[in-house]
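anyone seen this seq b4? input:
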Amino acid sequence: MLKQYFITILLLLGFVILSGCKPSNPYGTVPVRGNITVDGKAVQGITVTFRSVSGNGVSAYGLTDNQGNYVLTTGGAPFGTGAVPGKYHVMMSKITNDEPQLTLDEYNTLVASGKPRADKPPDKATNQIPEKYLQPETSGLEPVDVQTKGTNVFDFKLVSTP
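predicted toks r here
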């Protein structure tokens, strides 16, 4: 009888402990990376966004480094977690203004904090890459298909003139 009681307590304790655990990959993301160039040159600070074609998926985003490389992150997850498998429209921008440009480390720290920048609103904002890349309807870029298995590397060669 005592043995049964002990086993029951252990099972209940196990369920309580497991129910409090969060999955390490709550969105089921897979790694996604790539490179973006504009007129053959790497451009640092391009924000790339993967938006679900179906419209009801979770978007993923990244920021290019000084070599034009990006790694996607989904939701409020840690940097580099990737994207949920599925089809995505791709949008890009590089908005500059009178506020200082964040480095990749500063950007990651800001995202991890979950707080918005405390800077004053910019006086003038301009897109440093062609504005057609702001929307999938005008970008000329085909949707990408993030796969569960295999490598998900998506490179984009943007051009500033048609």
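Confidence is low (pLDDT under 50) at residues 1-20. Helices lie at 2-19, 104-113, 136-139. kinda curious what u guys think
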